[in-house]
Amino acid sequence: MDIARLLSPQRDDDESDAIDYDQVVDMRKARLEAPSSPTLRVGAWSFAEEAYTMALIEAFLMGLLPELHAGTPLRSFLAAKLECVPMRVSKKLALDHLAGRPLLKKLGQKRYLPSDGVAPSVQKATRQQLTHLQNAFLCAKEKDILYIRGLDTTTIDPAAKVPLGRPPSAAFSTVNALGHRTGYWLREEQLYAHKLIDCFLKGVLDLPKGITLRSFLADRLSCSPMRISKKLATGSLLGRAIPRKIGTAVYVPKFDASDEFKTLVQQAQLDLNRLRKACLDSRAALAQRED
What we know:
Layout: H1 27-33, H2 47-61, H3 74-82, H4 86-93, E1 97-98, E2 101-102, H5 120-148, H6 158-161, H7 187-202, H8 213-221, H9 225-232, E3 236-237, E4 240-241, H10 259-290
Antiparallel strand pairs: 1-2, 3-4
Helix pairs in contact: 2-5, 3-4, 7-8, 7-10, 8-9
């Protein structure tokens, strides 16, 4: 599954407020205080856990986890990464949304299929993002444990003890602390967004009915809905005029059994895959230049 004011740099205010979670967790201390046997996570989901889970899902569906065996179910993969029972994952995925983004039904049943020919730079960026979000999750998790035990939590409170700054690698200077892309819109990203909008409005995507264009674009472009709103509010994309309130459009799938429509859907998917790859490659190239 899967339009020139845009040419000028646009940066979100929250970029400078990214928190370096990689310096929040004292891993040596965490290992010393860890219980002798694993403790399965239960209860409410923190946003850090949801953000980490969403990144894991994306990497899983894109086939960017070389250490994972082909055929591994998504549900069991997430349960192992989050140290919880599979049923907890199933209940969360059944809500059809995660970290403010929509999910497909029966997503947990998906099985892992490695992707061939992935650029090393993409693999590296994926690993760095997952590590960063995992540390944010561990920070929130450790704080929860101390709170339950009645101990001081300010020692790991990011707002109180950690200096604000960018994530650990310069490759993520355009990614905030939650793993969302921020700032300048690359040309390849705009081309991909334009095609996504076109397919969304034509109803040729495998999406649940009623999802807003704003949420859909935020999900596909891995950024916050506010970044999408700011871009659409300019009234143009790639120099082409678009309605300023187009982000509120809701998805209405088109049902057509004709061969012509099936061909249209197949071609749209091929175009989206090509543009998505170009978008990811351009982001990876930008990350390399910033290293």
